[in-house]
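haha ok so turns out i had the wrong file open the whole time. this is the CORRECT one, sorry everyone. sequence first:
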Amino acid sequence: MPKLKKIEPLLGEELLKKVKELESESKEDKAKKCGYYTVTKNGIERVNMMKFLNALIDAEGIQLDSTPSANGRGGRSASYRISVQSNGNLLIGSAYTKQMNLQPGDEFLITLGKKHIRLKQVDPEDREDDEAIDATA
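then structure:
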């Protein structure tokens, strides 16, 4: 196997982009080419898979450690599954809205498919344009 030129480990968007470019390669090769390896005294390359995988998790913005909120309670973590409630409502919990950095008052357009629901965030600037048109009508 040819020696790799040692690079600083990639982080964030750079890491995600490089991993996407290397999608057909093994995870070990991806880790090496993203800089997650060391060379031992004997010249053997050793892949740092744990550091690589942790960097990927961080780059994706996934928070594995539960950090308590200001009031001392941790709350639920996102399971990426919801059920229809007995009153027919679907509730998207705060774990998802926090992950998406949504704020009270953010609006969405709902599109229904046969077996899916799509939410598209309404741009506040578009909303102001719509209100200006309504006011003149």
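The chain has a mean pLDDT of 80.
again sry for the mixup
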